[in-house]
Amino acid sequence: MEGDSDRGEVKENEVKEGVASIALLPCGSISGHFIQLPHNICYGLHGTELECERECSRGEDYRLIKLTIIDYKRKKERDAFVECRGHDAARLSSIDHAHGWEKNVVGMVEEKHGKNKIVVSFNCETLKAEKAAEDHIRNFMPKLAGLDAVVNIGRMSITGLDFEDEELESKQNLPEL
């Protein structure tokens, strides 16, 4: 891949694949969870839409999202920047691989929010709306009940997500006693 030396190398064994359940809220935010299969490890997902400071002519169908991936067990989180396409049936992809965003917009996000080493891909396979969405939310995301969200369920892959790297780095940087 072009430019990988700038962003850091991503090892093949760092690919996490599984199923995600994501609530798309009317305000533009997203919330949900990702279950890594076959290990059944669950991560929280929370996304907020980024305002584009430059003229973006892609319309409402294309949005930039700051996606926070949360490991509740380790009490750690990592941010990734993704493009969200589609309205009710969302598709998420990392901005490094997104089509249509100008390089200066990608550069602006990297400058403001740091280098993106996490690559995310999600495609909605099941869409739940109205009563089906509300039932799903009450069962799996009760804090979001009553917010008129739609639910997307589908396969997700995350590459470059490593919560243990930070733990090793912080241990290596500790002064010796």
From TrEMBL:
The entry's protein name is: Uncharacterized protein
Instruction: Report the PANTHER family cross-referenced here.
Output: OS03G0209700 PROTEIN, OS03G0257000 PROTEIN
What organism does the UniProt record list as the source?
Cannabis sativa
